[in-house]
Design a protein that fits this description.
6-stranded parallel β-sheet; Rossmann fold; binds cobalamin; alpha/beta; single chain; 419 residues; TIM Barrel
Length: 419
């Protein structure tokens, strides 16, 4: 079988090549043992360019988040237009919402992790008995997986260079999978919260392999919460600290302390992305974030004092936003020490608790067409996302005004990251 795995065009992103899909690289390692496999990175291509480039194959696998599903549907349709006998499949976090799949264009979906099921899908496709949906079992022992295939894809731009250095000089690294928290704005609880860890030895082995084989020294650790298990993080940092690598991680502000910060910094970590969301405790509580504004402030100070840059991930227009929210956010940001802030529009992610029961969160979903859902306040075309929710008791005008005020403030800090 010849399989082609596809990373879709991301035409709205300003830096479409900032991150590569490591899930596809894992799948390529598995498929490559038995079949021919290629990965196509169309992140910075337009759809017609991607289709023109697409080689002939027996099986096309696309990775998609939920908001990419309409685009993935259309892409499958275009694949079938070009190669009439092509088999198309979609995987990734989007597949939990199968009501958005266009079954005229998509032959199959994989829900869950692909490594344990992809060979069966290919086998079934070969025998002409492909099922509509497959359930990919959770990989229990992450150390048993081969390293993601980096030969077929290449590298990301530097995780620290949003000022225009787009040279491919870094790679993603997954050291754990899953998240034990259940924030009500996230769909992850729907697709499994069981956390699994790789051993520090296995992580060290992959970092060393990337260094030795490719000479790449920059990493973007894409675990949901890298710092979740403190002893393990300490051990990983201890092991990699002599390797001369630099890296960025993601975590929560209530899973962080000074000891972790010092060890991260000493082992080459340059930047931590914190899921701040808001500095308004009413908002954090309603979103079931668990962390508080005080956690946010304390942790930003700790990171700064320990020599780590902080990248803040925030949301505006969330359920619970009141007249106090934007002033509270601005006041805290004025006091906090941070390096960069990325602020997204809240959207009710299909599958999340808020999507299922918006009334409980004091909002009305006024548009359930996910083609209109966009997180980015600044995309490549300078457009603002559409209004898709209404906060009870608040007019769209006042919320839009607050949004402009907040985005205007962020812009004035010169620390705003724009996608
Ligand atoms: C890197 C990343 C990106 C990168 C690359 C995306 C990609 N396709 O990999 C970029 C920057 C492009 C990106 C963008 C977005 N992202 Co993102 N991203 C991530 C992140 C941090 C890591 C993804 C990853 O590599 N995971 C590790 C690998 C091993 O897992 P995986 O990708 O899920 O792949 C496995 C399975 O899903 C499956 N699988 C995946 N694809 C396929 C394909 C086939 C054919 C098969 C059989 C199986 C299969 O097998 C893989 C191996 O087990 C995740 C969070 C996370 N920790 O997963 C969020 C995440 C995927 N992103 C998310 C979101 C919301 C977005 C955006 C919509 C946000 C935005 N601001 O617009 C955009 C979408 C693009 C757009 N707007 O145009 C959500 C998705 C939620 C959802 N319900 O869909 C996540 C889960 C974060 C979160 N919890 O909110 N993202």
């Amino acid at each position: 079988m010849r399989a082609v795995l596809i990373h879709l065009p991301l035409p709205r992103l300003i830096n479409p090549c900032a991150q590569v899909p490591i899930g596809l690289m894992y799948l390529a390692s598995i498929i490559g043992k038995r079949h021919e496999v290629a990965i196509r990175n169309y992140a910075s291509k337009l759809t017609y360019e991607a289709i023109a480039d697409l080689p002939e194959a027996d099986f096309y696998g696309i990775t998609a988040t939920v908001t990419q599903l309409p685009q993935a549907n259309r892409f499958c349709f275009l694949i079938k237009e070009k190669y009439r006998h092509a088999v198309t499949a979609i995987g990734g976090p989007g597949t939990y919402m199968q009501e958005f799949i266009d079954w005229d264009a998509v032959d199959s979906v994989c829900v869950g992790e692909g490594e344990g099921i992809i060979l069966k899908m290919l086998e079934d496709a070969k025998e002409g008995r492909l099922q509509r949906a497959y359930c990919g079992p959770e990989v229990k022992d992450l150390d048993s997986l081969p390293y993601p295939n980096r030969d077929l894809f290449g590298f990301d731009m530097s995780p620290f260079a949003f000022s225009g250095d787009t040279r491919p000089s870094s790679t993603g690294l997954v050291t754990s999978r899953g998240c034990p928290f259940s924030c009500d704005f996230c769909a992850s609880p729907k697709f499994g919260i069981k956390v699994r860890y790789r051993s520090p030895e296995s992580v060290y082995g992959e970092v060393k392999h990337v260094l030795d084989k490719y000479g790449i020294r920059q990493f973007r650790v894409i675990d949901d919460i890298f710092t979740l298990n403190k002893p393990r993080v300490m051990r990983i940092c201890e092991m990699i600290k002599g390797l001369g690598v630099s890296y960025r991680v993601m975590c929560r502000t209530d899973c962080f302390d000074e000891e972790i910060a010092r060890v991260l910094q000493g082992s080459g970590c340059k930047e931590v992305e914190f899921g701040i969301e808001s500095f308004d405790d009413d908002v954090l509580k309603l979103l079931n974030k668990k962390a508080t504004a005080a956690d946010n402030m304390r942790t930003l100070k700790t990171a700064h004092d320990c020599g780590l840059n902080s990248r803040l991930l925030m949301m505006i227009r969330t359920p619970g936003q009141s007249v106090r929210t934007v002033p509270a956010n601005i006041e805290c940001l004025q006091k906090a020490r941070f390096h960069m802030v990325a602020c997204g529009y809240f959207i009710p992610i299909p599958g999340s608790a808020i999507w299922r029961d918006p009334g409980k969160y004091g909002i009305e979903i006024i548009d359930r067409n996910i083609e209109h859902y966009d997180f980015l306040p600044y995309n490549r075309f300078g457009e603002r996302p559409r209004d898709v929710i209404r906060i009870s008791g608040r007019s769209l005008e006042e919320v839009n005004k607050e949004t402009e005020e907040f985005l205007g403030y962020l812009k004035s800090t010169n620390k705003m990251h724009r996608g």
